[in-house]
Amino acid sequence: MGAGHDHGAMSLGARHRGRLWAALGVTGGFMVVEIVMGLFSNSLALLSDAGHMATDALGIAMALAAIIAVRRSRSRPRRTFGLYRLEVLAALGNTVLLFAVAVWVLIESVGRFREPTEVASTAMLVTAVVGLIANLVSLGLLRSGASESINVRGAYFEVLGDVLGSIGVIVAAVVIATTGWWYADPVIAVAMAGLILPRAARLGRDALRILLQTAPEHIDVPAVEERLRTVPGVTDVHDLHVWTLTSGMDVASAHLGIASGHELGGVLSAARSALHEDFGIDHATLQVEPQDDRGCESLTW
């Protein structure tokens, strides 16, 4: 059963590695442009967007590193679970960076509200328009992998936020150019921080759920237990655990009490089929025991 996951990981890398490299080039390259133009135009909105794009680039880089590490880990016999959790750790690290960027933007914005600063609106506008185009390109490159990987999904949502951020910077530049209202720059910067925080919280929550081995939200554990009890020959289900190894890879383990006279191979096959068909769990470690066995009664978690 486990071999299917290795194949899935290889397929993910083969399908999306090139797109990730392209997205990294687009995002990282324009991040440098935004930093330079943000300093030139004195625009906090551009600098905050550049900071956000930096986390986008890092998120994409970590997704690439996770794919490469998983491929290399197959030759290491001590890494029996591979390095799938690197992807989750990378997502958690990206969450911390997102929060840091949001806090920095908020602090800088407070200073701009107290003392409005003149901004070169034309340079700001041109940079934001080009940034919007770059973000749309990155969004298209990442979209197909967003449903298969927590890290790619995190990068996708960050770039989606950058699209909105670029639109906001364009609006701010137009307002400043037409009205001279300098407050438009920190207002948009604060709005972008507001976009960053919910996405960071959501990404961090998903990563922590995996690291804490919490049962996936979409799987009803009591329903899993009841379904296993309906398998012909199963008289008892205990020590059931369901968790996520990495994004898109749910696993389970359980002890099954088996009535005498039933063929163990048939019971195990039916139990695995039930987990796969009803709950999408493709990797299950099932221990079978005689129905009167009491060896697990002292086991506690």
UniProtKB/TrEMBL annotation:
<dbReference type="Pfam" id="PF01545">
    <property type="entry name" value="Cation_efflux"/>
</dbReference>
<comment type="similarity">
    <text>Belongs to the cation diffusion facilitator (CDF) transporter (TC 2.A.4) family. SLC30A subfamily.</text>
</comment>
<feature type="transmembrane region" description="Helical">
    <location>
        <begin position="182"/>
        <end position="201"/>
    </location>
</feature>
<feature type="transmembrane region" description="Helical">
    <location>
        <begin position="82"/>
        <end position="107"/>
    </location>
</feature>
<feature type="transmembrane region" description="Helical">
    <location>
        <begin position="20"/>
        <end position="40"/>
    </location>
</feature>
<feature type="domain" description="Cation efflux protein cytoplasmic">
    <location>
        <begin position="216"/>
        <end position="290"/>
    </location>
</feature>
<feature type="transmembrane region" description="Helical">
    <location>
        <begin position="119"/>
        <end position="142"/>
    </location>
</feature>
<feature type="transmembrane region" description="Helical">
    <location>
        <begin position="154"/>
        <end position="176"/>
    </location>
</feature>
<dbReference type="InterPro" id="IPR050681">
    <property type="entry name" value="CDF/SLC30A"/>
</dbReference>
<dbReference type="GO" id="GO:0005886">
    <property type="term" value="C:plasma membrane"/>
</dbReference>
<dbReference type="InterPro" id="IPR027469">
    <property type="entry name" value="Cation_efflux_TMD_sf"/>
</dbReference>
<keyword id="KW-0812">Transmembrane</keyword>
<dbReference type="InterPro" id="IPR027470">
    <property type="entry name" value="Cation_efflux_CTD"/>
</dbReference>
<dbReference type="Pfam" id="PF16916">
    <property type="entry name" value="ZT_dimer"/>
</dbReference>
<dbReference type="InterPro" id="IPR058533">
    <property type="entry name" value="Cation_efflux_TM"/>
</dbReference>
<feature type="transmembrane region" description="Helical">
    <location>
        <begin position="52"/>
        <end position="70"/>
    </location>
</feature>
<protein>
    <submittedName>
        <fullName>Cobalt-zinc-cadmium efflux system protein</fullName>
    </submittedName>
</protein>
<keyword id="KW-1133">Transmembrane helix</keyword>
<dbReference type="GO" id="GO:0005385">
    <property type="term" value="F:zinc ion transmembrane transporter activity"/>
</dbReference>
<feature type="domain" description="Cation efflux protein transmembrane">
    <location>
        <begin position="20"/>
        <end position="212"/>
    </location>
</feature>
<keyword id="KW-0813">Transport</keyword>
<dbReference type="InterPro" id="IPR002524">
    <property type="entry name" value="Cation_efflux"/>
</dbReference>
<keyword id="KW-0472">Membrane</keyword>
<dbReference type="InterPro" id="IPR036837">
    <property type="entry name" value="Cation_efflux_CTD_sf"/>
</dbReference>
<keyword id="KW-0406">Ion transport</keyword>
